[in-house]
Amino acid sequence: MNYIQFSNKQNLIDKILIRLGILTTDNVVIKINNNPDYDITEYRRNVVANYFFNNFWDFSSKYKSIVDINILDNHIFHFDTLQSLSKEYEIEYNEGNDCDFLLQVLIQNKDAFELNSFGTEVNDFELHNLRIRTIDNLKGRIYYEGSFQGDSSDIEPLDWGVYSTLGLNAIPNDIDNLPFYKSLLAESYLLLKEKKFKLSYFLTFSAFESFVNFELGGNDEPDRLKDKFKELFGSKFIVLNSHQIYTSIMSMYDNYTSNRNTIAHGRNEIIIDQEMVKSSLLFILTLISTYELNSLTFDDLYSNFDN
User: Cβ neighbours of residue 180 under 8 Å, at least 6 residues apart?
Assistant: First the structure.
């Protein structure tokens, strides 16, 4: 495998970030708060009516930031059913752990929700149009909105609840316990997703410099970064001339660095687009993961991600 073949592997950036502990891919279950927004929909008491709701899920205890998120499915569970599932799957259930409990059930049996829930309708209640509205990483919240048909008894039901299964990519909370260059790579990735391309590109190389200095033991000598990286790689891979990855891609270094310097100095106009950022990020991630995973060839390196 050569670099072109390696770089064309599907979702490679995400796979490397996951392997380096910078990104996590999870499914989670959350309980939906369908308390209506009464500025938009009028309270109709016992009359079956359509209500709009706009609420949030706080993820700050689970993740540092969320990169992207999707609603995979929605189900209504009667609380008696949760007790029955607890006995069937021998998983502890109580009122405070319902979401984590349901996730454990789902892990054991992917069909359990379909077999044991009411779907999205129960009695006069029907859930409609639930969607993710926005991610707020500063507050650690996912805002969602939707509507339902029902009466007053369906607003805060006593014996059932609406649960959503979400698929997400996120930056884990323990990123702060890892070397700082991993936080910089995480921030660069978030900026890429936010389409802040110049800042993402610049931060990628700040992360690379931080990585080199960290691995060299805080070496802040004013040598060229390229020379310092060669020194670092040479300390682990003694014969650099026979190292497939190093000899294949280091010729690209000067071009990427030139773009980074143009951004930093701000004297010349430069257009940085999404593909340029993804290309530079993959280049830097390849170098870092090659060193961390002690790989000599692209086949060897990719074997760490192909799972």
Answer: 210, 214
Burial of 74 (0-12, 13-18, 19+ CB in 10 A): middle
pLDDT at 267 over 90: no
Model confidence pLDDT, tens digit, residues 213-264: 999 986 556 568 889 999 999 999 988 999 999 999 999 998 888 888 888 8
pTM for this prediction: 0.89
How many Cα atoms sit within 13 Å of 182 on the Cβ side? 21
Residue 220 confidence (pLDDT): 59
pLDDT tens-digit series, residues 87-116: 999 999 987 899 999 999 999 999 999 999
Residue 142 is given by DSSP the state E
Q: Can you give the pLDDT at residue 63?
A: 97
Phi, psi dihedrals of residue 42, rounded to the nearest 5° = -80, 140
Q: Where are the domains of the chain?
A: 3-20+178-302, 24-173
CA triple 305-182-67, angle to 5 deg: 75
- Specify the CATH number of the domain 3-20+178-302: 1.20.120
Closest CA to 143 of 268, 32, 292, 229: 32
Q: Please report where in the chains the tokens 């310092």 appear, as a residue.
A: 228
Please classify residue 178 by burial: count the beta carbons closer than 10 Å to its beta carbon, then call 0-12 exposed, 13-18 middle and 19+ buried. Answer: middle
**Pick from 186, 304, 197, 159: which is nearest to 245 by CA?**
304
